[in-house]
Amino acid sequence: MTNITKEAVIEQIIATFREYGYEGASLSLLSKATGLGRSSLYHHFPKGKEDMANAALDAVMVSFDQLVLSPLRQTQKTSDQRVRACAKGLSEFYASGSNSCLINIFSVGTAGKMFQPYLEKRTQGLIGVFADLAKETGVSTKEAKKRGENLVIQIQGALVLSRTLNSNTPFKTLVKNIPELLLHSV
Length: 186
Description:
This protein is mostly helical.
C-alpha cells in the first residue's frame, strides 16, 4: 500500500460494507473505494472479501471497545458517570445514528452464516457488559441480563429507525435515555 496506510484502506472497506452490505460490496466497489487494484487487495487480504470483512470487524471492535466499553470499566467512577460516558462514546461511534452497525449488516445472507459465531460472541459480550453494570444497581442477575439484552435491542432498533426515517432523532433519543434504561428501569 504505497501512499495509503492499511488503516486507511480498512476505513474505506468499512465504509463500503456499511453502504452496500457484505453481499453488495463487490471487489470492484472495494477496489474503487480503497484506490487499490484487485491484485493489491488480494495481496493484503489473501481470502479476498472474507479477509476484508474480518479486518473491518476487528477494526470496528477495537474502536467500539475504546469508545463504548472502556468507559464502563472505569470503576473509580460512579455507575451513572460510566454509563453516560458509554452513551457519549456510542453516539460518537455510530456518528449520532448515521453509521450502520457491521454486526447488523454481517448478520444476514452469506455473511450471516460465515460470521455467526464471531457475531454471537461479540453480542453476548456486549449484553454481559451492560448486564454487569445494571447489576451494580442491586437488581437480580436475571433482571440485569434482561436490561442488557433490551439495551442492545434498542440500540439496533434505533439505528435501523434512524436510517429508515432519514433522521438521527431516534438514535439521539435512545442515547439520551441509556442511563435510565440501564440503571433505573422499573
